[in-house]
């Protein structure tokens, strides 16, 4: 993969490749899957752990969705609270701006958060509530930033919502505070949500190499901390196309170079750490990263040995959507697993070319079709397992296909060197589990029909 | 009736879910069916994710995938496209079109569009119906029961609206409430069948969401009530409705086909189980099978064993209305002081209860749970319970941090015993910690 580095020292820059705002293809009614823009905005902003997140709309938007992500916080828990104006019929008929005012005041007076994010939903967008006006008025009145998030579900896909949330971060938050101290080795992680505590693994590695995270955007993030992101030496966009725009905007306004990377697999991890070190411009840090990477890769390769033996030649179908596809492929290949099918439903053209760089024509590309198409690929390519998000987990289990969960709801951390080891263990344990033999066996009474003949 | 509610302007840690979720749940209990949410993509994605997490099963649901311009210009064009797509691709037996807050506020006349689609396609052997379920009313329970009611109307329509030629004395209908688990529905069917009665259940999640290993992927439901069985409900001798929310659908059958109904508010606890067994004995004219005598004694013995740990215990119960009433009933039999009963929305059954009930959220539960022993609610309550220092027992929907919630049984003597022991064990452990 050619790194997208834009610090001026490399010839290839993607600084001008801001994601185009061409409309996404319209979802097919009756055959659509995946979340809405509101979902995408929530996913991106809720990990800011000390802020309050208030959903302005009828109950379903929050009531059906809260507490469904595995983003962990090391401290404050306020973002794990579900706040919603829970609009009733009267609110919709007579307007609910007053209710929104009161809700914001209530939250601020009771919880004293550093900020409140207020999410528009389809209904409040449709009824034309002046949410920005309310937020502005309450910000002034209360002296607490009240931030409107205008990403109602019907504007588009989850990815669009993530991008809109990136705009919110850029317009309202980044640049609003100053860090107490900075070093020349400060990096922002963008699009790392600390699923199952993955960010903590990465942070430890960075510390060992003499680098630190200035702003977590947004996994285990804090509101004030996001505000001083403009003082970082470099941005790393972790597996998130949708937040690339944020990095581009930060480069333009603050001159912060960025690169895209991933922490899935030892190679990608080493690459990402090296890239960070390079962007800090400190030779000493670079040397420390080299040493760290060499040591960790060596250790890992020893520890992985028994698992590699068992995974060698196993065939997997990967269906994660988006950028994770290419980053996870590298990790699987390091374990000796052959990726025989890969979902490209949410991938951009650039993601797909990165996938192609890694697996060429050996694998089947699954652009759409969801569960049915995944199963077809598993059968035709004789795959041993499916690696996908929770949405498709039970489909695979019904067909008695070993399954490993790789998406946002999971409870295992796979990032970094240790993460690869965890992934290897998880894969081996899954494949070798006795349950597959047991479920494949017929019940005794079904076997008996053979005697009856 | 003593209904109270907190006065805060905002819902904090809601107990409520959107009505359409109840509609989607109800349709999981129909064989080869597809609920179609008329709304934005997220409406169905959230419902699907939530139910999948709870049941640990694939969930059938589709969406008309409305985007802003569709809503402004012609939302029903999307609906028609979705119907067309689902129909031509999957040939389901049942499609239920469910509106959402978005389509209700946009004020589209989707019901007549559904009727037109049905007319144009001359759909005879399958069921296409619609139900209006705005998110700004009710909760899961009301969405579920309204959907069953509309489904019942559609079944009656399909059966021609005429009185059946014959009536089967030994055939009964069962309408289980939204809170009953797949395990509960299976248990109730089993109890009824053990009196020599044939039972038709509508909807029946016990055969679709209890966990089966049918291979061969389908986006439609893989179990539940077959449509022709549903049509035979008109020949049954009576209808058994479990949960007050199922009274309206039961009444539909009475009005249309003269089938009497019997309502049981719940089947948890000794008194409720006794009433049910006694009733079955009467209508079947068969003595209660000997296993129920055993189960009853086992339950009483368990209650005796457990009462040491229950006595003096207090609880906060935050569940959907029928579930909350049924849970309160057996907790009262165990002598638990009900510190606060919380439910997400008001229903006619709540107006009649003599208990004090709060319409509220899990934050209200937390406020009243200080110094309380037990907290019973869906999984969202776990953190609040921990903050309040109450022992947490997950129940209701969603339960995502415990295995087997969807197959656990709380009905009849056996189910009551299971819960008496389960909650008793929590109290026992608390005592062990010196709590």
Description:
The complex is a heterodimer of chains A (453) and B (435). Chain A has 453 residues and is α/β, with parallel strands linked by helices. Chain A has 20 helices and 13 strands. Chain A is globular and about 70 Å long. Chain B is α/β, with parallel strands linked by helices and 435 residues long. In chain B, helix 4 (75-90) packs parallel to helix 6 (110-121). Chain B is globular and about 65 Å long. The interface between A and B is large, with 69 and 67 residues.
Question: Could you give a quick summary of the protein structure above?
Answer:
The complex is a heterodimer of chains A (453) and B (435). By secondary structure, chain A is an alpha/beta fold.
Read across the widest sheet of chain B, the strand sequence of neighbours is 1-13-12-11-14-15
Which sequence of strands runs across the widest sheet of chain A?
11-10-9-12-13
Q: From the alpha-carbon coordinates, what is the Rg of chain B to the nearest angstrom?
A: 22 Å
Give the strand content of chain A: 5-15%
Largest sheet of chain A: 5 strands, parallel
Give the fraction of residues assigned to helices of chain B: 40-55%
Portion of residues within helices of chain A: 40-55%
Envelope shape of chain B: globular
Question: Oligomer, anyone?
Answer: heterodimer
The CA-CA distance between the termini of chain B, in Å, is 34 Å
State the end-to-end distance of chain A. Answer: 61 Å
Number of strands of chain A: 13
- Overall body shape of chain A: globular
DSSP strand tally of chain B: 15
| Biggest interface, chains and residue tallies | A-B, 69 and 67 residues
């Amino acid at each position: 993969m050619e790194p997208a580095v834009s610090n001026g020292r490399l010839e290839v820059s993607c600084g001008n490749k801001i994601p185009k705002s061409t409309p996404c293809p319209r979802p097919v009614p009756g055959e659509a899957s995946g979340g809405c823009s509101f979902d995408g905005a929530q996913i991106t902003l809720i990990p800011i752990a000390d802020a309050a997140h208030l959903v302005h709309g009828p109950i379903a938007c929050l009531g059906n969705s809260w507490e469904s992500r595995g983003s962990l916080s090391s401290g404050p828990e306020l973002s794990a609270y579900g706040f919603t104006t829970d609009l009733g019929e009267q609110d919709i008929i007579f307007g609910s701006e007053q209710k929104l005012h009161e809700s914001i005041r209530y939250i601020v007076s009771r919880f004293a958060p550093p900020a409140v994010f207020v999410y528009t939903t389809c209904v409040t967008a449709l009824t034309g509530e002046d949410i920005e006006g309310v937020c502005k008025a309450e910000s002034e009145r209360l002296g607490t930033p009240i931030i409107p998030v205008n990403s109602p579900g019907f504007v588009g896909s989850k990815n669009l919502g993530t991008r809109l949330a990136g705009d919110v971060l850029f317009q309202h938050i980044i640049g609003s505070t100053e860090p107490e101290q900075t070093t020349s080795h400060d990096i922002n992680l963008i699009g790392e949500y600390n699923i199952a505590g993955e960010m903590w693994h990465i942070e430890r590695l960075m510390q060992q190499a003499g680098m630190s995270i200035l702003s977590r955007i947004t996994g285990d993030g804090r509101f004030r901390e996001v505000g001083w992101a403009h003082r970082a030496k470099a941005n790393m966009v972790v597996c998130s196309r949708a937040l690339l725009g944020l990095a581009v905007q930060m480069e333009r306004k603050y001159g912060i170079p960025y690169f895209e990377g991933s922490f899935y697999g030892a190679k990608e991890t080493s690459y990402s750490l090296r890239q960070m070190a390079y962007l800090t411009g400190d030779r000493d840090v670079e040397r420390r990263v080299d040493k760290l990477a060499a040591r960790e890769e060596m250790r890992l390769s020893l520890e992985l040995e028994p698992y590699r033996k068992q995974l060698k030649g196993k065939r997997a179908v990967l269906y994660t959507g988006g950028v994770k596809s290419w980053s996870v492929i590298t990790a699987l290949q390091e374990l000796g697993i052959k990726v025989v099918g890969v979902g490209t439903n949410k991938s951009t053209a650039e993601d797909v070319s990165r996938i192609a760089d890694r697996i060429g024509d050996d694998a089947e590309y699954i652009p759409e079709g969801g569960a049915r198409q995944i199963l077809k690929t598993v059968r035709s390519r004789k795959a041993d397992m499916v690696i996908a998000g929770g949405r498709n987990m039970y489909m695979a289990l019904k067909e008695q296909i070993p399954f490993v969960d790789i998406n946002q709801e999971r409870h295992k951390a796979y990032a970094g060197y240790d993460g690869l080891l965890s992934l290897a263990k998880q894969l081996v344990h899954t494949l070798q589990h006795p349950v597959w033999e047991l479920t494949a066996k017929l019940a005794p009474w079904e076997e008996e029909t053979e005697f009856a003949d | 009736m003593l209904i109270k509610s907190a006065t805060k302007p905002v819902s904090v840690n809601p107990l409520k879910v959107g009505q359409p979720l109840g509609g989607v749940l109800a349709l999981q209990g129909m064989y080869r069916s597809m609920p179609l949410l008329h709304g934005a993509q997220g409406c169905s994605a959230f419902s699907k994710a939530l139910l999948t997490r709870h049941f640990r099963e694939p969930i059938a649901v589709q969406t008309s995938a409305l985007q802003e311009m569709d809503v402004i210009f012609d939302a029903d064009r999307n609906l028609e496209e979705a119907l067309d797509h689902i129909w031509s691709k999957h040939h389901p037996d049942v499609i239920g079109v469910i509106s959402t807050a978005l389509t209700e506020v946009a004020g589209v006349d989707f019901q007549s569009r559904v009727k037109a689609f049905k007319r144009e396609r001359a759909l005879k052997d399958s069921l296409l119906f619609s139900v209006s379920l705005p998110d700004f009313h009710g909760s899961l329970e009301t969405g579920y029961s309204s959907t069953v009611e509309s489904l019942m109307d559609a079944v009656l329509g399909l059966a021609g609206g005429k009185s059946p030629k014959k009536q089967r004395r030994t055939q009964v209908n069962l309408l289980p409430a939204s809170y009953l688990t797949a395990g509960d529905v299976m248990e109730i069917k089993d109890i009824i069948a053990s009196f020599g009665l044939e039972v038709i259940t509508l909807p029946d999640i016990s055969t679709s969401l209890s966990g089966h290993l049918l291979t061969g992927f389908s986006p439609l439901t893989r179990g539940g009530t077959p449509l022709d069985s549903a049509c035979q409900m008109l020949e049954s001798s009576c209808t058994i409705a479990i949960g007050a929310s199922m009274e309206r659908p039961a009444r539909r059958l009475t009005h249309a086909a003269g089938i009497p109904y019997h309502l049981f508010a719940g089947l948890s606890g000794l008194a409720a189980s006794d009433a049910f067994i006694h009733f079955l004995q009467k209508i079947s004219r068969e003595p209660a099978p000997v296993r129920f005598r055993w189960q009853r004694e086992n339950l009483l013995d368990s209650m005796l064993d457990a009462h040491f740990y229950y006595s003096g215990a207090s609880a906060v119960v935050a569940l959907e209305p029928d579930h909350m009433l049924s849970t309160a009933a057996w907790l009262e039999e165990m002598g638990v002081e009900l510190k606060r009963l919380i439910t997400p929305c008001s229903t006619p059954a709540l107006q009649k209860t003599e208990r004090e009930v709060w319409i509220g959220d899990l934050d209200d539960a937390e406020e009243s749970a200080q110094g309380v022993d037990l907290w019973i609610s869906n999984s969202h309550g776990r953190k609040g319970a921990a903050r309040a220092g109450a022992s947490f027992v997950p129940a209701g929907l969603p339960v995502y941090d415990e295995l087997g919630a969807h197959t656990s049984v709380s009905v009849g003597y056996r189910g009551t015993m299971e819960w008496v022991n389960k909650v008793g064990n929590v109290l026992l452990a608390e005592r062990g910690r010196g709590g």
